Amino acid sequence: MLSLMRTQVGIIGAGPAGLLLSHLLHLRGISSVVLEKRSREYVERRVRAGVLEQGTVDTLAEAGVGERMLREGLPHHGIELRYGGAGHRIAFERLVPGRAITVYGQQEVVKDLIAARLAAGGEIRFEVPDVAVHDLDTDTPSITFQGERLECDFIAGCDGFHGVSRRSIPEGALTVYDRTYPFAWLGILAKVKPSTEELIYAYNDEGFALHSMRGPEISRFYLQVPPDASLDDWPDERIWAELKNRLETVPGFELATGPILEKGITPMRSFVAEPMRYGRLFLAGDAAHIVPPTGAKGLNLAAADVRVLAEAIGHWYETGSADLLDRYSEVCLKRVWRAQHFSWWMTTLLHTFDTDDAYGRRLQRSYLDYVTSSEAAATTLAENYVGIPFEPFGSLGA
Ligand code: FAD
Ligand code: DHB
């Protein structure tokens, strides 16, 4: 016999999408329960993205969960594109005045959101196995797990790319668009002072490298590696040697090294499932779409989705109208596809493709020269990188 619980919105997944949605709903007086497969320690330690767009920063700050981010996060007003023996700065302050990014680790956002939910009496259930969704095409959907049934008005599938939500939608109801890339990213976190003040995106014949950071004493790096690379092939000395090889390409730049705290390999993929809804199940974040990390968009798209979803659900409770819920997918997909294109474009511009012929390399160099010399092309990069402003949706932005 299943024990019964009830909430207004059942949320699957305690990543940035699920947690922020739960918080935004709470601010509107709407109850939710978050069900997470992993432990609290695990989700708080999972090292992933680090670049927050202006709109994500504003959303977190306006929602009252941005205090530590505003104190400890690193505002950046530009990035460097490094290639052909020189660095070229894309200057956000000139190209997109008033808009910038903040470097603040995803797991810090997750910690802040968990703390805020728990302080407000919110319910997050960790280490919940065997989540299943039911009756999605009725007004009374529910979620079962471990001998319990959670009845709700809506289910938010915020359980990432490998979650159960999207897979529970009947075949044929979704259209999938995807692309895989012939490389992966090896990411490390290292206890060493960053060797740069701003992020460096480095293009080389040997492959792409990225120098990022998390604070005054912590650096984050990524290396393009073959798609089947294993961490066993990448002892620390090899990682540092390759980072030096790909980043020490301008006169006078020396890369500081230090102990490696964490290593991981991330496959590169573009993926969109449309529509982002089936009946009373709404998909948000990586559950609905994946981008290669080159444009730093994954986490920001997750935040943008749930901002729209919280408003649409709020509108339904306030007015009984499903108008905004019916537009949820279409509104989100507009931003999603812009980010898909930008992430694919940045990836294509900056990586070495196995199949690349000399012609392809010349095209990359030509576009890099264009983007670093034309104000129009640089503005295109800058406005996408800091994030396209939110469009008014319902009362949002009004
Ligand atoms: P997630 O953060 O994936 O959260 C989903 C949550 O659902 C997880 O906590 C998961 O444990 C839980 N879950 C899954 N299945 C179930 C289930 N059946 N039941 C209950 N809970 C479940 N983006 C960048 O911009 N830069 C990067 O460097 C970068 N690195 C990444 C590295 C990795 C390994 C991955 C996977 C992603 C990376 N991303 C990066 C993308 C970015 O981190 C994601 O876009 C972001 O996490 C999306 O947030 P989300 O809440 O939608 O999904
Ligand atoms: C980071 C990750 C990215 O994908 C990116 O494009 C820039 C920075 C980071 O983890 O710091």
Q: Oligomeric state of the chains?
A: single chain
Task: Look at the structure and give the mean pLDDT.
Answer: 96
Low-confidence stretches: none
How far is the first residue's CA from the last residue's CA?
A: 48 Å
Structural class: alpha/beta
Helix content: 25-40%
Overall morphology: globular
Give the distinct bound molecules. Answer: flavin-adenine dinucleotide, 3,4-dihydroxybenzoic acid
Strand order of the largest sheet: 7-6-15-16-17-14-18-21
Biggest sheet details? 8 strands, mixed
Number of strands: 21
Q: Describe it for me?
A:
The longest helix is centred in the C-terminal third of the chain and has 28 residues, at 323-350. The chain is globular, with a radius of gyration of 21 Å. It has eleven helices and 21 strands. It has 398 residues and is α/β, with parallel strands linked by helices. The strands form four sheets. Strands 7-6-15-16-17-14-18-21 form an eight-stranded mixed sheet. It has a six-stranded mixed sheet with strand order 9-3-2-13-20-19. 44% of the residues are buried. The chain is 35% helix and 27% strand. The chain binds flavin-adenine dinucleotide and 3,4-dihydroxybenzoic acid. Flavin-adenine dinucleotide binds at residues 12-18, 35-38, 43, 48-49, 106, 128, 131, 158-160, 163-164, 187, 264, 266, 285-286, 293, 296-299, 302.
